[in-house]
Specification:
The structure is a homodimer of 333-residue chains.
Chain A (H helix, E strand, L loop, with lengths): L1 H11 L5 H9 L3 H13 L5 H10 L5 E5 L6 H14 L4 E6 L4 H4 L3 H12 L3 E5 L9 H14 L5 E5 L4 H7 L4 E6 L5 H11 L4 E4 L7 H15 L11 E3 L8 H18 L1 H28 L1 H12 L5 H8 L10
Parallel strand pairs in A: 1-4, 1-5, 2-3, 2-4, 5-6, 6-7
Helix pairs in contact in A: 2-3, 2-4, 3-8, 4-8, 5-7, 8-9, 13-14
């Protein structure tokens, strides 16, 4: 598939300007979507205004974040969900941000093949984001990829990530519905790490529900939720759903819960609040990334400050304020 | 101890200006150190110039980061190291950034008591940073606490953190010597999460070396290091050291390795390179935090941008550039 795409590009020869490509994205052409996401990943300046234009055209998709530690069975669950949505006639998009994802490395070839069936039928678009080499940051690239799929009419758009790391947390926070997948029998150490993520869940899924330990995990999560009370300002009660990704058992329950949460968000007015929070976080995150990029691209602008702070002639906060343009002449302080 | 300090403050009544307090920090008074760290945690603007002054006075301490997942035995190891350093006559400082640390919650009372013995002898200063409620960010507060101890003449200064989360990673990256503690028998899921941290280790410690599984963990780490080759530009070979925090066995080996790494950094010239990298990261991290604080304190300045991005009238990148002051009138784009 990739080889075919490459040879086509080679035959055409000419580079399609991103503004042209954006039109093909809006008309839903998968090859244009794939290329536009690649340009977002490469951080090409030429693509910036086209990506901005696509952002303005989007806003209809239901964005679903699915997170869980490696080994929880995330990718298999996502595969099952793709089939469910595709069977219902939805155009489902998946962005996998996970170094262990089969979509990125081919670890589970069987799933990859079934995935391609849905993709070939035109009802699914699956893309993995490499976790290295993003000039504009992994979180930025991933959110841009979601923008592109959104503008192209995909919904739901599933973001699959391991729940650890700043980029992953930022990406999951940009979802309307957050599904946290727990696996029975994972140790307390893992639970401690996940605690922050567990609190953000709109839906809990417990994988491997055919295992006897699964019911203990379900009870533990229910206990945690009972203790925590309901989220401030929401009457949504996060359900705890046992699933088996392998046998496909009870995947329908999860799919229904995702749909119910989306309906709840729209009906209750929580969607507007959540959208605002997502946008606020994204604006600030983008600004911080742009700031960082500036000095990665021009290290010489940073150099005198690094030297002064290293030699204890200047405080790091003074240097930081100067770089932000908040203080005119830091060398006098 | 805390109660005593409080009643003294109450008797004196007056608030000591931070510039006055800084003088007492420089002369090594523990109560002044504790108060100055609290002011850094509270993000008091009044303390900023005093903290900057203390930064300029520091730069002599050996900063040691000790990281490992909850349950690895980190806090017990740190306790053993404190006693070792105190017995040698060092003024050792500890900043614990770990919600499960006994220094913050009293989970292991025995250690807490032994800790207080060293503290009472004036040779150790132990402080835990709460992981919530830092106006300037946890990483900023922690690095400021290190600055304060450094200016007061403490060395080594040990930063104890769980190795997960952006703040923790940032704090560990600010250490001269990074010790990663692994526990035998922890699952592969944990190992996968830790992979990024393992690569940064200058020294590997394996806890619970009296357990039979420990030697397998030591071999696994040695195998990983053999595969990875040596770090670019360094001829330091990270040792893998079995330790037992409970029996105190082989803590001396770890203490010697920490000293050897410090000697290596100074002798080879790597210290200067590392200091520069630490300062670069700290300047950029501080700038990003200051930027974030500005809009947390003045949400109304952010509001029109949030509304425009939420309503898809403006792209998040355009809003971000405007907030950075890089574009004059975003409303025309």
């Amino acid at each position: 598939m990739r080889a075919v795409a490459r040879s086509r590009t080679a035959k055409r020869g000419a580079y399609t300007p991103s503004t042209e490509l954006a039109k093909d994205v809006l008309s839903g052409r998968p090859i244009a979507i794939a290329r536009m996401i690649s340009r977002a990943e490469d951080g090409r300046a030429e693509a910036a205004s086209a990506l901005a234009e696509l952002y303005l055209q989007g806003g209809r998709a239901h964005i679903v974040g699915i997170t869980g530690v490696p080994g929880a069975g995330k990718s298999t669950l996502v595969s099952a969900l793709i089939r469910t949505y595709a069977d219902e006639g939805h155009k489902v998009g998946v962005i996998a941000v996970d170094p262990s994802s089969p979509f990125s490395g081919g670890a589970i070839l069987g799933d990859r093949v079934r995935m391609s069936d849905a993709a070939a039928a035109g009802s699914a678009f699956v893309r993995s984001m490499a976790t290295r080499g993003h000039l504009g940051g992994l979180a930025r690239s991933t959110l841009r990829a979601v923008d592109v799929l959104d503008a192209a009419g995909y919904s739901p758009i599933i973001i699959e990530t391991v729940g650890v790391g700043q980029d992953e947390v930022e990406v999951v926070a940009a979802a309307h519905t957050i599904v946290v997948l727990s696996a029975p029998g994972l140790g307390d150490d893992i639970q401690a790490i996940k605690a922050g993520i567990l609190e953000t869940a709109d839906i809990h899924a417990v994988s491997k529900c055919d295992k006897p330990e699964a019911s203990a995990t379900v009870s533990a999560l229910q206990g945690m939720l009972a203790l925590g009370g309901s989220s401030a300002g929401s009457d949504w009660k996060p359900p705890v759903l046992p699933v088996s990704s392998v046998s496909g058992e009870r995947i329908g329950d999860l799919r229904r819960a995702i749909g119910e949460h989306w309906a709840h968000l729209r009906r209750s007015g929580e969607l507007a609040v959540r959208q605002r929070n997502i946008c606020r976080t994204r604006i600030l995150g983008t600004a911080k990334q742009l700031f960082q990029n500036k000095f990665q691209q021009k290290p010489e602008a940073l150099e005198p400050y690094v030297r002064a702070v290293t030699e204890r002639r200047m405080d790091p906060s003074v240097a930081a304020r100067a770089l932000l343009g908040w203080e005119e002449d830091p060398w006098t302080t």
